[in-house]
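User: My advisor, Dr. K., asked me to get a structural model of this assembly before our group meeting. I'm new to this, so sorry if the format is off. These are the inputs:
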Amino acid sequence: MIKYVISAIYALFLGIILCAPAAQADQTEAALAPVDVAIMAPGNANAPITGQNLPLYLDEDLASKHANFSNFAKGTIQSLNRNHHLSKSRMQIVKQSDGLYRARYHSIDSASLVCKVRRSKSKAIPYVGVLRYKERIFEAVAVSPEACRASEFIPVAIIPNRHIFSFKKGAWQ
Amino acid sequence: MRQSKKMILLTLVAVMALSFAFTTTASAKMVKKIDNFILFLDQSGSMAMTQPDTGKKKIDLARDIIDSMTDVIPSLDYNSSMFLFAPFSAESQPMPYSEAVIDAAAQKVPTDYEIFNRTTPLGNGLMDLDPVIAGLPGKTALILFTDGDSNAGADPIAQAKALYSKYGNTLCIHVVSYADSPRGQMIIDEIRALSSCSVATDGKTLMTPGAMDKFVGDVFYTKAADAPAPVVVPMAKETITFSLHFGFDKYEITDEMIPVLEQAKMILEEESSASYEIAGHTDSTGAEAYNQGLSERRAASVTNWLTANGVSASRLEAKGYGEIAPKYDNTTKEGRKLNRRVEIQTK
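Assistant: The format is fine. Below is the predicted structure of the whole assembly, which you can bring to the meeting.
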């Protein structure tokens, strides 16, 4: 009797496994009803495009300056990380009232960089660049400063930043 | 009796094997950030060109990335879809997410096509996607795989802006960049800069260990603690930083400072109701009292310029911190230069 009950349970499991893909296929087929897509409207520019009012996506000169700024930005982020007074190499470790130690450091997520360049009306400063990035604060708690340093740090806050630079005499500052 | 025990053991082994088979089952600690995601792949002529450092076509690389991405997207009841542009087509209509369905759709994406005369109407592609986004409930992540080299049709930056105006914070556009031209990269960055929600990455980075897990984590879900409330990493208020390169002991605004101040003013105008602290900082060179006074005068100069140029005085507060709030290491020349700064923070 027990043998038959166990065999029945086993057969039920196998049945569920074999039927699942079929059920999914039914669901997929039902969901494949086409979506109406709007017909693209023609462009509606009221003002002709000239050299003086080129939209960004057609401005090759600005694109070139953007590339130049992006290279500058990568180096700048390394400098900001290196010099931050709470960088990983200068992490702050404090003893808490419960006797545990809390370690904290800041690090800029280099993958979060977004660069933007705009022309200015100034002859001395023909371009400005805006560098957007996320500064993350990491923390670890442990029984000693050494244990903190060896711990896995978790992000506890994100500080969004925008840093504005100017282009003067061929260099970003 | 011995046979019964064997049957029980076999059943237990079968149950364990089944539980290990579901490799992308959501962990109990993942909380979804979005309800829907759209994979939007550029199939223009430039995407069929070979990347010199990999020897592979950009569109082949994008397909590989999609395959890797679906391996780590957790099962959290997302709706998914896949569309192409240049020309626009639907590879997988919006439906409950299935790794197998998206992988199959990605495999069907053609990669052997003529490059010549196949333009990149990225702006038109975004317009065509509008009704798809409109039909999706909740929050949507639009993950765009492109080299950004838009050279036909509508302005892609304006179209992305229009989508954000229409959908607000229910839409976020993330771009996986395959840009190999300055203009392509600029267009991609301009689209990313439209919203702080956008997670920036590129095809090459996503192939490095850990990068895909991080990207999917940043876009798709947050990790919850064992306690009922999810632990969300809080976003602090934004900091805007610039150096006006004041001369020694100087605090007046000069013509050369105006382009930077104009850019700062534009940022403040993004949130017309927000209030800001304009903070002056110095490095640690010189007497503390002197630095305090100088930073106050410089903060006041910046505040006065902003007020004179249209920012309401009631929204701004000038404050000098002197050398007491360094952000960088004052023991290095580089650090001291970085500490000589103006910061604008939302109050």
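One thing worth pointing out at the meeting: Chain B has eleven helices and twelve strands.

User: Perfect, thanks a lot.
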